[in-house]
Predict the structure.
Amino acid sequence: MMDVLKKLKDMELNKMEQAVVIKEKKSFSKFLIIWIGSLISSMGSGLTAFALGVYVYKTTQSATYVSMVTLCAFFPTILLSPIAGVMADRFDRRLMMILGDSFSALGLVYILMNITNGNIRIWQICIGVAVSAVFCSLTETSYKASITDLLTEEEYAKASGLVQVAGSSKYLISPVLAGFLLISNGIELILIIDILTFFLTVMTVVIVRKSIKSTKIVKEKLELLEELYEGWKCIVKPKGILVITILLTAVTFYMGFFQTLYIPMILPLTNAKDLGIIQSISAIGLLVSSLVIGICNIKKHFVKVLSLGLASAGLFFSLMGASTNLYFIGAFGFIFFGSLPFINTSADVLIRKNIPNELQGRAWGIIGLISQLGYIFAYSISGLLADYVFNPLLTSKGILANSIGSIIGTGEGRGIGLMFIISGILIIITAYILYSTKSLKELE
């Protein structure tokens, strides 16, 4: 009799385990649908970012104006991310994504109308990208929090790898497409394509939302500042999370340098089409690494992976700046981009595993605000440093131009190369300091 009862109990447990597996598979399939929408949106955004960068630089011949447009495209998203994070915890996260993507198209429509009328100004481009960025802030934090809704802890690293595949499309696929489209059709077609991608993204979220219950996690109607404070406590209480947040700020600072100055550094050496091809080839490294992480799934040694990835990124960031050979720049860029997913995945998993789900939205909002301040700082100073400090040093006849210029070259864009070299060295130093940080190791 006891054996029969035991068998029945084992059968019941097996059924429960099978039900859990089915539920997890269903959840991951829903994540994949949202991920496809994110991939489409990222490709469209990458097309516009590349096209506007080339358009502004060719029009003004100024890295400062390129950085100004880039700053306007990111500052609203970063500034509003804590509030968007509270909204992601307070309301249906999928609904926030739908609203964010739907209204983000308005800014691009404004830019398209002014370009079509033939009377576009830099300040009008800045307004357009800023309006789009305001509504993108709703999408970003809700998307990150939704990952925790849909997946188990064991799937976080895999999901992070796939998320970075989607993010890499703006560097991998978009630049080469934008380069060809700019030559054959102009910037107007690129803006139209990007506008359409927003609505395709909305459709993927609508599909998933129908099969998921509303995720209004906050039970009490707390004050906004109180909710933000709750999110802040999640970050500062485990000191390691604060360390990671500061690290991510440094990473975004150097990525801001790359995003702003890569076009002014390479364009004097070639044309827009070749620039797009080189950037896309470099970004293949991001795709390859993201796919490896998504398939193999990192399960331990996150701090070591984070430090090694950071050191590798710094080394090849410097080498990109040191070369004027387009093949070498593409190869060094490949390894630089290939290092980034290991940094991002390790940081993402360490943070996600140490913050309760009900506080994920506001926590990611605050982490997004702090970490992406690096972008703001980089966008604010990179163009000015390039135009008024480093480029003049390597275009004039002086000791620095004769010594360093004999190694990395002189002329337009070589000052930016020197900025890349210095930045890469600082990244390597940061990696060494990070690996010896005790509070970070305690998160594992």
User: Anything to note?
Assistant: The CA atoms of residues 222 and 277 lie 50 Å apart. Confidence is low (pLDDT under 50) at residues 4-9, 11-26, 215-221. Residues 2-60 form the longest helix (59 residues).
